[in-house]
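User: Sequence recovery, please. Input:
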């Protein structure tokens, strides 16, 4: 059974890969396999949501710590999922939920991430003082100082603010592109290992 699953996964992966190089011969088969993968991924998301609800309901039933948050999570999940199915993602109420709830939560998480980076850099300086740790702390502080609203905005003027934004954007865009390149290379390496049967997450070792 493991040999069959490995052969099927490797064959499907090579067909999808070759479909980009030979679209006239393998385009329809490639799209069919991709559609199957999307359906399976969607079902996996639904299974994950069901498991999340089951775990939270068990915490609520056992009266464990944090059960109140579990109730809020389950109710919000069911309401959002139900309204999304009934109204659709482009409905004004769904857009309101996105703008009034999800976006502020994401902004709060980013703020927590910024504070965590500063705290981690200070902890790093306590353990090891070298050029890279000092540079990390200095860069994090500079980005926080220049990205938060300050009373110096009217003094610098539009040209000064735009120059600061361009200066910071140069480093942030470079870092983001470096992360994307690293993710792409890691994904490529993982895909090749799965294609050649080195890693078999679909059927064990």
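Assistant: Recovered sequence (205 residues):
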């Amino acid at each position: 059974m493991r040999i069959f699953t490995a052969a099927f996964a490797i064959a499907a992966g090579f067909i999808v890969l070759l479909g980009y190089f030979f679209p006239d011969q393998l385009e329809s088969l490639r799209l069919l396999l991709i559609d199957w993968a999307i359906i399976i991924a969607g079902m996996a998301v639904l299974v994950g949501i069901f498991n999340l609800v089951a775990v939270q309901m068990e915490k609520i039933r056992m009266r464990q710590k944090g059960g109140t948050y579990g109730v809020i999570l389950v109710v919000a999940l069911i309401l959002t999922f139900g309204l999304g199915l009934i109204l659709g993602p482009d409905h004004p109420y769904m857009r309101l939920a996105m703008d009034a709830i999800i976006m502020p939560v994401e902004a709060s998480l980013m703020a927590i991430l910024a504070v965590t980076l500063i705290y981690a850099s200070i902890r790093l300086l306590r353990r090891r003082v070298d050029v890279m740790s000092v540079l990390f702390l200095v860069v994090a502080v500079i980005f926080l100082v220049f990205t938060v609203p300050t009373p110096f905005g009217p003094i610098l003027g539009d040209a000064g603010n735009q120059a600061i934004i361009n200066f910071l954007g140069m480093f942030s865009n470079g870092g983001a592109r470096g992360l994307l390149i690293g993710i792409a290379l890691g994904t490529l390496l993982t895909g090749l290992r799965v294609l050649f049967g080195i890693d078999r997450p679909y059927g064990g070792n």
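DSSP finds six helices and no strands in the chain.
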